[in-house]
C-alpha cells in the first residue's frame, strides 16, 4: 500500500511552501517523500519535482492553441489529466514502490474542490492503485481574524470535505503574519453564541435566520 497527501486550498494559501517545508523536514528526518506537481501553471519549485503534470500538458500551449484564458486553460488541462488517468498517471505511479509516500501539490482553483469532479476521480484512481489518501487543506490564517472571513474559510474547507470524502486535515498557514494570536485561539474553539452575535452585528437584519444556520453548521464541523 502507498500513501498520498492531496494538498489543496485557495490560490496563494501556501500549498507549495507547505510541500517544500515538508520535503525539508522529511529530509532532516531521513525519510523519503516524493512531491508531485499537479499545477500546469506552476513555474518555480523549491522542492525536487518527482512527477509533473506539465510533462502531460502545458498551460501555455493550451492558451495559445485554443485561445483560452488562464482559468479556462487550467480547467482544460485538469480535464485532460482526468482523461489520461489510465495511461499517464498509471505509468508514472508504476515507478513507485508499495510503501512510497507521494504528496500532490494541487492548483488553487476553488472549483476543483467544490463541484468539478476531476480531483474526486483522481483520488478514486489513486485508491484503485492501492494508495491510502488524505487531504491537507491549507487556509491562510488571515481568514481567522474576522467572523465573516471565518465563515467563508470554513465553508470552503467544508465543501472540499463533502466533495472528496477523505480524511481531512486543515492547516492554518502564514501564522507568522498574525499579530494577535489570542484572536485566532477564539476561532479555533469558537463559542457559537458569541460568533452569532458578532455575525448579526455585521449583517443586515434579514440575514438573521441564515446567520443562525451558518453558525450551527460551522459549530458542528468543529
Ligand atoms: N509570511 C509567510 N508567507 C508565506 C507562508 N506560506 C506561504 N507564504 C507566501 O505566500 C505566497 C504564496 O505561497 P505559495 O506556497 O506559492 O502558495 P500556493 O497555495 O502554492 O499558491 P498557488 O499555487 O498560486 O495557489 C508566497 O509568496 C509565499 O512565500 C508563511 O507561512 N508565512
From TrEMBL:
Gene3D superfamilies: P-loop containing nucleotide triphosphate hydrolases. Binds to RNA polymerase II (RNAPII). InterPro entries: Gpn, Gpn3, P-loop_NTPase. The lineage of its organism: Eukaryota, Viridiplantae, Streptophyta, Embryophyta, Tracheophyta. CDD domains: GPN3 (cd17872). GO terms for molecular function: GTP binding; GTPase activity. Pfam families: ATP_bind_1. Small GTPase required for proper nuclear import of RNA polymerase II and III (RNAPII and RNAPIII). May act at an RNAP assembly step prior to nuclear import. It comes from the Eukaryota. This is GPN-loop GTPase 3. Belongs to the GPN-loop GTPase family.
Amino acid at each position: 500500500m502507498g500513501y498520498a497527501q492531496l494538498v489543496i486550498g485557495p490560490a496563494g494559501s501556501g500549498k507549495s511552501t507547505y510541500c517544500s517545508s515538508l520535503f525539508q523536514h522529511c529530509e532532516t528526518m531521513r525519510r523519503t517523500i516524493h512531491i508531485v506537481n499537479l499545477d500546469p501553471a506552476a513555474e518555480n519549485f523549491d522542492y525536487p519535482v518527482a512527477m509533473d503534470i506539465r510533462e502531460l500538458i502545458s498551460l501555455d500551449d493550451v492558451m495559445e492553441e485554443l485561445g483560452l484564458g488562464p482559468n479556462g486553460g487550467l480547467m482544460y488541462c485538469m480535464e485532460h489529466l482526468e482523461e489520461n488517468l489510465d495511461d499517464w498517471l498509471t505509468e508514472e505511479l508504476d515507478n513507485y514502490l508499495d510503501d512510497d509516500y507521494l504528496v500532490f501539490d494541487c492548483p488553487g482553483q476553488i472549483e476543483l474542490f467544490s463541484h468539478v469532479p476531476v480531483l474526486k476521480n483522481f483520488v478514486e484512481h489513486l485508491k484503485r492503485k492501492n494508495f491510502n489518501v488524505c487531504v491537507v487543506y491549507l487556509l491562510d490564517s488571515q481568514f481567522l481574524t474576522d467572523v465573516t472571513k471565518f465563515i467563508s474559510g470554513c465553508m470552503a474547507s467544508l465543501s472540499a470535505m463533502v466533495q472528496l470524502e477523505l480524511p481531512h486535515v486543515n492547516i492554518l498557514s502564514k501564522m507568522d503574519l498574525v499579530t494577535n494570536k489570542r484572536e485566532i485561539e477564539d476561532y479555533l474553539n469558537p463559542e457559537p453564541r458569541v460568533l452569532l452575535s458578532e455575525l448579526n452585528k455585521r449583517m443586515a437584519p434579514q440575514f438573521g435566520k441564515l446567520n443562525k444556520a451558518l453558525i450551527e453548521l460551522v459549530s458542528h464541523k468543529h
